[in-house]
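Progress report, Aim 2. The chain analyzed during this reporting quarter is listed below.
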Amino acid sequence: MLKLKRERMATTTTNANALLVAIILALLMCSPRCIYSAERRLLVNMTLIRNAPALGAFCLDGSLPAYHLHRGFGAGARNWLLQFEGGGWCNDIESCLERAKSRRGSTRYMTKWEVFSGILSNNASLNPDFYNWNRVKLRYCDGASFAGDAVFKNGTSLLYFRGQKIWEAIILDLLPKGLGQARKALLSGCSAGGLASFLHCNNFTKYLPSNASVKCLSDAGFFLDERDITSNHTMRYFIKDVVSLQYAWQGVEKNLDENCTASSLDFPELCFFPQYALKFITTPFFILNSAYDVYQFHHILVPSSADPHGHWNRCKLNPAACNPEQLNTLQEFRRDMIVAMGLFYKYSRRGGLFINSCFAHCQSESQDTWFSADSPRVHDKTIAEAVGDWYFSRRITKEIDCPYPCDTTCHNLIP
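Predicted structure tokens for the chain:
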């Protein structure tokens, strides 16, 4: 009996040791991503801009605009990274009124604490080039990529199209907090915020010291002026409505690049598209985009209006389920995107590119896709490494991936 008890105790100890070894091996194999997931997330509090009313800066519903600032330290104490929040657009009064009742149009409904990860992380092993910079997330609440400057009222409804004023109010609030003495600065953004990076890049440099190193980055903001599968210009008409809505109240168009609008007199709203505005941006620029951007796939190439019977539904959810004809359409979309960047790729000496073949949208704010053990790679380089190499001029960074499905490192993030 005593012998049997000892054997059971020995077996239990052996099993416990085996389990411990397995846990340690698992942590080592998934480091740093799994270890980070067990750490406390970096949460950053919201700062409301109290003097915004004096500048005429309001969210759609009239609430105060806001940002989140996490201070830099050490060698990065005088460097600044600003990240425009994304979140689509509203293109008519009805959709803007609806938006004003949500976190996309009012700071009243926004989370007061934001998780900073990816390019906003303060962990050197997860964000090696920008971890110790002053990092700012600019909250998005105007519905037009921080570009409007007008007020709509009809007696019963009131909407503030004041994205341009919000941008100015945030910058003016940050200048005395150290932005005005910046040595290095990077203006970035995701999705509609990535588009805002194109729209405000040149203007950003005007606020900073002349000897500062100032550059801009757009993540998933290179929205194409592309026909949908029924040959309709769905996205062009949508953007025209966004611009016309706020231009009708003397807003967006005057805040587009005047050189671009002068060259597109018949269709000035086209300057809202990066492919037309890009050649007028004089500040060094980096374009991070998927060649099969999920938002553009679902809303530009195959919007629901172009596929009323849902023939593309399975393909939209899983690219492996696409039939040969659908895949060919997707490859044509990729080619059009690369062609639209052709002059930039060939002639821009200070520009950078990272165009991968993942079905994703926004890859700089997520730790998994920005910099981790299994992050997407192009030519064996992660997004974080490519952006860092470009910003610090360590090497030329113009990476374009091979067509789907060749890339085995992708995180196909289809919502």
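Confidence is low (pLDDT under 50) at residues 1-14, 18-38. The radius of gyration is 23 Å. These observations will guide the mutagenesis work planned for the next reporting period.
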